[in-house]
Amino acid sequence: MLIRNKRPGEILPSEITSPEAFAGRRQLLKLAAASAAVPLLSACGESENPSAAEKPPAVSKYDFPEVLKTSHGEGLELTSYEHVTSYNNFYEFGTGKGDPLENSGTLITRPWNIVVEGECERPGEIGIEDILSAIPQEERIYRFRCVEAWAMVVPWVGFSLSELLERFRPTSKAKYVYFETLFDPEQMPGQRRKVLEWPYREGLRMDEAMHPLSMLVTGLYGRELPNQNGAPLRLIVPWKYGFKSIKSIVRIRFVEQVPETSWWMQAPSEYGFYANVNPEVDHPRWSQKTHRNIGEGIFAERHETLMFNGYADEVAHLYRGMDLTRFF
Question: For the structural domain made of 13-319, what CATH number should be given?
Fold first, then answer.
């Protein structure tokens, strides 16, 4: 795992407000050294006040003290659990920010199987419990800086995507990885509307997928991942905008050609395949040079958006020689 050195002016981990301070619960996990950063899709000017703040659930098996720790995201102040779990983009449950919390109780996450197929030597199917039992000691907690028109910092529990992909032995023909969300309108009422072409689809280039900062997430704040946040398994790609971080994954496919992805198909002039955080490439309808932080209020001072969401040192080499205004 790549480790980021502490930058001048960063807050020490010991100065970060702990989950106990806002949740009033017993110690969740020793989060001090945890970290990383990820963008979440949003539109400008929307209210950030949660309508029904959910309290952290009872202690679960994710509360294990031996969870590995990293230095990614040191100095980033955490967004409250209430905001993280009540202000979401998950169109399968509705287009409003509060809709996923309100409507996702219909989602059944056990049993849950993920099909892995395509250009690999060992295609097959794996259950979420098999994933959790096979890699619990490899799980890590990361702080993710989530940036677009608004920003969050979330302590996700997860592990590098490459650790799962390598099990299926992708061949030399595998140039891209395709992901697919569950399609079940009975469980996901938002899919009864043609807001997007369902199921939701995303993809990464193989080198992006195998980068140690591309993660599969199984929890947040040391607890099991809530439905509205993409249970039971979601992707996080910290240097990209949030629509790349597909939720409730049921299919992974190794492919040779660039896969079609949901927002790229829906509005190719607005949402490119790569979706790297880039303040120099504006969305056609708003600037992406700045963002605001959830919890600070809609009239709070906006913050400068960093190239690759602040992870240029780790990932800029993946795009060396590419025209990032064309491959956006």
Answer: 3.90.420.10
